[in-house]
Amino acid sequence: MTIATTSTWVRRTESVLRPDPSRVVARLFLPGQEMAALGVSRSEAVIHRALALTDEEVDEELSAVYDSFSTRHRGLLSTWESHFSLLEHRVTDHEPPSLARRRLIGAYFTQEYSVEGAALFNPSMALHPDQTGLPIGSVRFVMTVRAVGEGHISSIELRTGTVSASGQITLDPPPTVAVLANARPTSYVRSAFENQLVDMWGDRTNSDFVLDALPEEFSRDELDVALQNLRDQRLTRGAARRTIDRFEWIAGCSYTVEFPPSSHVQERVLMPRGPSETQGMEDVRLIRLADADADGEADYVGTYTAYDGDRISTQMIRTRDFRTFTITRLSGPGSRNKGLALFPRKIAGRYVAMSRADRESNGVTTSDDLQHWDEPVLVQTPREPWEIVQLGNCGPPIETEAGWLVLTHGVGPMRRYGIGAILLDLDDPTVVLGCLAQPLLTPDDDERDGYVPNVVYSCGALLHGRHLVLPYGSSDSATRFAVVDLDPLLAELATSPAPPTTDEDHS
User: Fold this and answer.
1) Is 275 exposed, middle or buried (0-12, 13-18, 19+ CB in 10 A)?
2) Geometric angle at alpha carbon 311, from 422 and 408, rounded to 5°
3) Cβ contacts of residue 45 below 8 Å, gap of 6+?
4) Transmembrane ranges (predicted)?
């Protein structure tokens, strides 16, 4: 029997977040590729047919489609106008269309996309920046969740709620609309580019030529000037085009977005934008970083897996207000593969993170700047029957008086997942103080079925008093919640010393 089936200190709650297919965003729709027989664009053909409509037909159709869709979106007319502007160059040999016709043409090139049509799972939880107006002993939380829509594309959503002094979870009413962010100018860091170029194993001659022309922090305009200088020397510099492409790719992976001030936190959806994440932004592990500024404000930082349909990479998202977000790509051996999870504060002057660089074991890696991560130190390898296939973390480490509490996940027979725990030394987290032999949670009967069966998985829990609030995804479909009493968990870890971990175990 597992701990979860025999213990009274691990309690599942009735709270469940299920995907809502009615939450949709309005995205650009391009109907097909070039017409093979005629050699003309489908888009151009659609535009010409729309231009042939009478004014009465335009007004009637625009009114009908707006009445049908406007309650499902914010700023739908502006979206249609924006989409028309992307196709406006195809309006040839015709007088400028009226505003109504522009909007209708934009509507023909717009589609609804259900961001959570397939699943809503793999949550992480942190203290909300606004803790005002709460009963004594209660806290407000903000939670990231992974939403999966058409084409198995993952996006990042937000949810909020409260936890009472007794550990009771109350979720805020779910949002009814989804709001997308707008791009904002961003700045770049030269050392981050340099480290990523090292990971790519390219010829350094051309990349150093570009980097040497840039200050430590630079703008897009400054990057354009440096790249143009390389283009001007392309005849005498081999592989200049490849170097330029690499700089453009790295720059595309680093961006800033901002949501409208009128939007609510829960309405905001971060959809893939950079070239490394075209097929998904997966499994954010969110922390409230302890390094506050002079005003007492702290950064919220999350690591996540970016997927481009072929390769995965680890990226980082930062915000202070959950309205403006900055995304960067990480580098170094410690950031390889999935599941980098940051510690909430520095240790011995360095940033620290859990790493699964080898795809199956838990390690600890460090960084000077949160961007480049060193070779990890192995701390836990698969040993128990329930974790033989692979191990990983289930979110950022949590500081307790006994040590760093790290929730883990293990994969066993029939690809069944379980959530376990280890305890690391506060001053030296490469030292394992305790390790549960059995998982805290395995899938209940009503959690076994879903998009990926037999999975329980979390990206981060919240410690409130002596309660560990544990949100978790069930079978890659929905989000559920459990509450774990901290004291018996620490007592169990104290009597479950970790087996020795050596390089031979890892080989």
Assistant:
1) middle
2) 10
3) 35
4) none
> What is the H or E stretch that residue 256 is in?
strand 255-258
- State the Cα–Cα distance between residues 384 and 421, nearest whole angstrom: 13
Q: Are 204 and 194 contacting, i.e. CB atoms less than 8 angstroms apart?
A: no
345 with 291: CB under 8 angstroms?
Answer: yes
The C-alpha atoms of residue 178 and residue 264 are separated, in whole angstroms, by: 10
Nearest residue to 457 via CA among 418, 406, 405, 413: 418
Report the residue count for the chain: 507
CB 460 within 8 A of CB 395: yes
CB–CB of 366/410 below 8 Å?
A: no
Report which DSSP code applies to 500.
P
DSSP for 190-253, written as a single string: HHHHHHHHHHTT--HHHHHHHHTTS-SEE-HHHHHHHHHHHHHTTTTSTTHHHHHHHHHHHHHH
- Classify residue 89 as exposed, middle or buried by CB count within 10 Å of its CB (0-12, 13-18, 19+): exposed
Helix (H, G, I), strand (E, B) or coil at 417: strand
* Domains by residue range for the chain, with CATH: 3-21+115-183+254-506 (2.115.10.20), 24-114 (no CATH), 187-253 (no CATH)
Task: Tell me which amino acid residue 148 is.
Answer: V
- Rounded to 5 degrees, φ, ψ at 26 are -95, 115
Among 161, 120, 141, 427, CA closest to 283: 120
Cα distances from 214 to residues 189, 227, 253, 391, in angstroms, run 9, 10, 18, 41
**Angstrom distance (rounded) from CA 83 to CA 88:** 9
Single pTM value for the model = 0.93
Structure tokens at 218: 């630079």
SS3 40: coil
Q: Which two tokens stand for residue 474?
A: 């069930």
Dump pLDDT digits (tens) for 139-162.
Answer: 999 999 999 999 999 999 999 999
| pLDDT score recorded for residue 39 | 55
Contact between 329 and 381 (Cβ < 8 Å): no
444: CB partners within 8 A, 6+ apart: 12
125 DSSP β-pair partners: 143
d(CA 96, CA 103): 13
Pairing of strands 139-149, 119-127: antiparallel
The residue ranges of DSSP E strands in 33-80, in sequence order, are none
Lookup result for tokens 């480490």: 397
CA distance 356 to 305: 12
Other C-beta atoms lying within 10 Å of the C-beta of residue 228: 10
